[in-house]
Amino acid sequence: MKVTPWEVSGTIDYNKLIKEFGVSKLDDSLLERIGKRAKEKGLPLHHLLRRKIFFAHRDMKFILDEYDKGDHFFLYTGRAPSGHTHMGHLVPWLLTKYLQDIFDVELWFQFPDEEKFLFKENLTLEDTEKYTRENMLDIIALGFDPKKTHFIVDTLHAGLMYKEAIKVAKKITFSTAKAAFGFNSDQNIGAIFYTAMQAVPSFLPSILKKRKIPCLIPHAIDQDPHFRVSRDVIPKLGHYKPASIQCRFLPDLSSRGGKMSTSVAEHATIYTTDSPQEVKKKINKYAFSGGKDSLEEHRKHGGNPDIDISYQWLTFFEEDDKKLEKIYHDYKSGKLTSGELKAILIEKLNIFLKDHQKKREQAKKLIDKFIFKTH
Amino acid sequence: MKVTPWEVSGTIDYNKLIKEFGVSKLDDSLLERIGKRAKEKGLPLHHLLRRKIFFAHRDMKFILDEYDKGDHFFLYTGRAPSGHTHMGHLVPWLLTKYLQDIFDVELWFQFPDEEKFLFKENLTLEDTEKYTRENMLDIIALGFDPKKTHFIVDTLHAGLMYKEAIKVAKKITFSTAKAAFGFNSDQNIGAIFYTAMQAVPSFLPSILKKRKIPCLIPHAIDQDPHFRVSRDVIPKLGHYKPASIQCRFLPDLSSRGGKMSTSVAEHATIYTTDSPQEVKKKINKYAFSGGKDSLEEHRKHGGNPDIDISYQWLTFFEEDDKKLEKIYHDYKSGKLTSGELKAILIEKLNIFLKDHQKKREQAKKLIDKFIFKTH
Fold first, then answer.
1. Which of A67, A247, B51, B214 qualifies as a FRET site for B283, CA 20 to 30 Å off?
2. From A192, which residue of chain B is nearest by alpha-carbon distance?
3. What's the CATH code of the domain at A322?
4. Are B102 and B210 contained in the same domain?
């Protein structure tokens, strides 16, 4: 198992990650407190929380305690533009949108367009510029409040960010970066510096508003090394330690572990811009099945939903617990075939994507509203 | 002997530096060509060139060849604001002013206000902001053409510079930076990245004007490691390799070698804001003398101007060769006493500083004209 912000491989043991990274399990008392706030807005506890897809955190209690006192946090998440958006990317954003809705707070969304440029040999800044725009459409399409959501793009907002980044950078040695990210001496000096830029949005609103504001970062667990390093530094600059809430990876269509990553299997990745036919073809061809070798065997012994990727994906995208439970049992009993299970996922995704793609088109007119204006 | 952009110590052997750094000696044929251009403007060859205080270069022939073809270069130099300006800082700027005058070219003047912040534990960004302004006054006071001179301040112009810096940074490994600057693993990641920001002004005008423009950097030799590294990278980004013309250090008042550095002996440093009394006191107290122990001995055997700091300083600031030669011989013969020699330097500096301080006051109204406007 390898989990860094730039590489996730092997079978992921999330309990081991909790120990290695030093994060805390998201326990029921915290979920209850979030659920209480959701209820006030007429919403249930989000299925990504109910199902512990968001499974870990740092300082969530602090965030909720402060909120109870009237000290509202802001949300911060991001996307390093290096390709089109796929379904895995949406997971933390979906929860972020939910958290914005129930807590009615600001979101600062970072597009670190230099990150993948610095880490990927062949990626150009023209590529990242194109993908920044493409990725923005997907984020806007999820329905974030334009009045409370600010996009910051590292190369575009460096005039604001660089001065803050050097304050962070001054307090991080190469040794520390090396230990956290596994760098060696062949690493380029931009990549080494980069983590300082990723730290900035966690306190930039406090700088701009000239008061300490708590920060909550929903993100996939692979980004934790950045915040593990910056959490040691940021309080020394006079700000709160950023808190975080961390999710598992949407598994690769073709694998039983790890993260869905375009660098691993591009052809087996479902993009938000895929047509219904493409979605159908990819899932039928690549989604690893927990079914038996023959229909007869399957009917007799049933399938294994715990390793079936289509079922796993439904735990991420099917909100209805009862539907999901029925699918689980029907598949386990053999009543539901692997083909039928795939068909359920295909339909679910295509319904979502049809609506998403419509909103994505409408988003083209809205980009400018979301980009943070420095003057 | 140690010469890095952040530390100069020991007795400097300039011939050894030429070999170690791989720069070229500034030979007579190059000086002749510069002198020819000077003559066209009714000016002599600058005494800093005549006396080989500027003693080394990289690619000066290329710069002059291109100029002859009508392809005019721009000048780039800088000042990392970490304290008040002292006489040593003025040396490269005086030649830069002269080169702007005789070649009638643009100057891009960088204030890398993050540099010393990143390299000096106790320096704050409030300090560097204050010194940036103070240092700007000295540069303006030297008479640079406001229409052809652009100040860029790293934290202020990062919106323009960071995107270019990451292109450079991607092509410099930690190993390379380590070898050039002597970094170890305790170095902070901002300091490691910094050299990429220092590279940017050498091609920024080419980016802004969308054509390849040659760049000439007058600087003290200790800055060479930055450009040695970036010269390997910049052509790969589609720009000319920056050329440079490099000077010796104004020696410390109290020493016989090395660079005048405020970090070594602050009390023995002459600042551009010093009063005539302070200048007098510091030179009388600290300027190392090449004279004999008693007046009688001095009259009999004469002094040694080659190790006398007051005489050495006059080679930097007394433009008149004949006057200087007379001082040399009178001191060597014992006709001129050490006290009298010091008095000559004191008078020379105080005349210069009186005028400089007047212009420095007037410069306060001009700062805004010099700062490069990005929009």
1. B51
2. B189
3. 1.10.240.10
4. yes
Smallest Cα distance from B169 to chain A, Å: 5
In 10 A of CB A334, how many CB atoms?
18
Among A254, A278, A295, the domain boundary falls at: A254
Candidate from B159, B170, B187 with C-beta closest to A158: B159
Do both B181 and B319 map to the same domain?
Answer: no
- Measured CA to CA, the distance from residue B117 to residue B155 in angstroms comes to 11
Number of domains in chain A: 2
CA B328, B332, B336, B339 dihedral sign is positive
pLDDT for B258? 55
Residue that finishes a domain, picked among A254, A285, A306: A254
B155, closest residue in chain A (CA to CA): A163
Please state the ipTM of this predicted complex. Answer: 0.94
Asked if residue B373 is part of any domain, the answer here is no
Looking at the domain assignment, is residue B375 inside a domain? no
Find all residues with CB under 8 Å of B32, minimum gap 6, and list them: none
A158 interaction partners in chain B (CB closer than 8 Å): 158-159, 161-163
Q: Where are the alpha helices (DSSP H) in chain A?
A: 14-21, 28-40, 47-50, 60-68, 87-103, 115-119, 125-141, 158-169, 174-181, 189-199, 204-209, 224-233, 276-286, 295-301, 309-317, 321-333, 338-363, 367-370
Does residue A49 sit in the same domain as residue A155?
Answer: yes
**Cβ atoms B163, A158 nearer than 8 A:** yes
CATH number of the domain that A85 lies in?
A: 3.40.50.620
**CA–CA separation, B108 vs B141, rounded Å?**
16
pTM for the model stands at 0.95
A196 interaction partners in chain B (CB closer than 8 Å): 189-190
Q: Do B187 and A165 touch (CB under 8 A)?
A: no
Does the distance separating the beta carbons of A157 and B118 come in below 8 Å? no
Confirm whether B367 is domain-assigned.
no
Put simply, whether B170 touches A (Cβ < 8 Å) is yes
Same-domain status, B162 and B311: no
| Interchain contact, A171 vs B187, CB within 8 Å | no
Q: Do B196 and A189 touch (CB under 8 A)?
A: yes
Quick check: B231 contacting A, CB < 8 Å?
Answer: no
Q: For testing the chain B interface, which of A155, A162, A189 should be mutated: the one with the most B CBs within 10 Å? A: A189
> Using one digit for the tens of pLDDT, what is the confidence trace for A31-53?
999 999 999 999 999 999 999 99
Range of the domain at A89: 2-254
Answer yes or no: is B261 within a domain: no
pLDDT digits (tens, 9 = 90+) for B102-130: 999 999 999 999 999 999 999 999 999 99
